[in-house]
TrEMBL record:
One GO term (biological process): galactose catabolic process via UDP-galactose, Leloir pathway
Protein name as it appears in the record: UDP-glucose 4-epimerase
Functional pathway: Carbohydrate metabolism; galactose metabolism
Domain NAD-dependent epimerase/dehydratase positions: 3-251
Keyword vocabulary terms for this entry: Carbohydrate metabolism, Galactose metabolism, Isomerase, NAD
Source organism of this protein record: Paenibacillus montaniterrae
E.C. number: 5.1.3.2
Catalysed reactions, semicolon-separated: UDP-alpha-D-glucose = UDP-alpha-D-galactose
Name of the coding gene: galE
Pfam family, one: Epimerase
Transport found in the keyword field: no
């Protein structure tokens, strides 16, 4: 039996592929390599193609004995989604529809889905649990919520079981030092802070210091990418054991402000990190912290690497050894 990992050459996808390989799973990856990197794949059989390309999906479903899918392939930038919502609906929502229809056609009825805290929007409660209101403040979050809902109806009608994992802030890099975060353009806080530490950027722009938080900067819940990867493996096991569809938050249940992240990065790297304060970024809630009780209780998830200092140290190991990401 093989697991299809869509978007397996991306940041979280490639760390999940690594975790699956470590326990001997057979892996098929579908990635259009728009954001993903061939070099990020530590193994598995790669099909370069798009979710919306029926021929590629027919080929990979007929050539491999796939029993489950882990679905990462999507556009994932909040800012971009506000400017180009059509791109997000097309790739994320229509792409997922194409995938679910092919899964149904080929009798594959298990899917682990890469979802996001952006499905909640401005939270009503802190920490956020899975029963809280979902009211996305970005087109990106809205498309991920639409994808989750589509899965629900494919479950009702066709018995396709899904586990949706709503991540908070993924960060860090694989312990081997071989794979890490390499987005182009990079928009995420921790890699940008480390690029500033490396002198690749003149400074880190802090988006807003007038939020209603202790130091005025936004608070986020950072979780190590390999802890996220482990949750996908546990979710896959759960579906294979016949569990029902479910939604889980994945976070460390602890919040750090942007200023705290910069201070810890300074401590870890020993480098100066120049800071410039700028306007708020549209769509940013002040505080996002997960309650991950449900994932801990039901999946047995036990994140081991998500102390912020450790996360930043692992990211620094990757960035300082790969200042140009995957390119030579
Ligand atoms: N942020 C920042 N400067 C940057 C990038 C991010 O101040 O160059 C802030 C951003 O406003 C948010 C936090 O850092 O409050 C985390 O942002 P990121 O894009 O990493 O993740 P998000 O929470 O948007 O998923």
């Amino acid at each position: 039996m093989a697991v299809l990992v869509t978007g397996g050459a991306g940041y979280i996808g490639s760390h999940t592929v690594a975790a699956l390989l470590e326990r001997g799973e057979e892996i098929v990856v579908l990635d259009n390599l728009q954001q993903g990197h061939k070099e990020a794949l530590l193994g598995g059989k790669l099909y370069v193609g798009d979710l919306r390309d029926g021929e590629t999906l027919d080929k990979l479903f007929s050539e491999n004995n796939i029993d489950a899918v882990i679905h990462f392939a999507a556009n994932s930038l909040v800012g971009e989604s506000m400017k180009e919502p059509g791109k997000y609906y097309h790739n994320n929502v229509y792409g997922t529809l194409c995938l679910l229809e092919k899964m149904n056609q080929y009798g594959v009825n298990k899917i682990v889905f890469s979802s996001t805290a952006a499905t909640y929007g401005e939270p009503e409660n802190v920490p956020i649990d899975e029963y809280d209101r979902t009211s996305p403040t970005s087109a990106y979050g809205e498309t991920k919520l639409a994808m989750e809902k589509m899965m629900k109806w494919f479950d009702t009608a066709h018995g396709v079981k899904y586990i949706s994992l709503r991540y908070f802030n993924a960060a860090g890099a694989h312990a081997s030092g071989k794979i890490g975060e390499a987005h182009d353009p990079e928009t995420h806080l921790i890699p940008i802070v480390l690029e500033a530490a490396l002198g690749k950027r003149p400074h880190i722009s802090v988006f807003g210091d007038d939020y209603a938080t202790e130091d005025g900067t936004c608070i986020r819940d950072y979780i190590h990418v390999s802890d996220l990867a482990d949750a996908h493996v546990l979710a896959l096991d759960s579906l294979r054991k016949g569990s029902d569809s479910a939604i889980y938050n994945l976070g460390s249940s602890t919040g750090f402000s942007v200023k705290q992240v910069i201070d810890i990065a300074h401590e870890v790297t020993g480098r100066e990190i120049p800071v410039a304060f700028e306007q708020r970024r549209p769509g940013d809630p002040a505080v996002l912290i997960a309650s991950s009780q449900r994932a801990r209780q039901e999946l047995g998830w036990d994140p081991q690497r998500s102390n912020l200092k450790e996360i930043i140290a692992s990211a620094w190991n990757w960035h300082s050894n790969h200042p140009n990401g995957y390119s030579k």
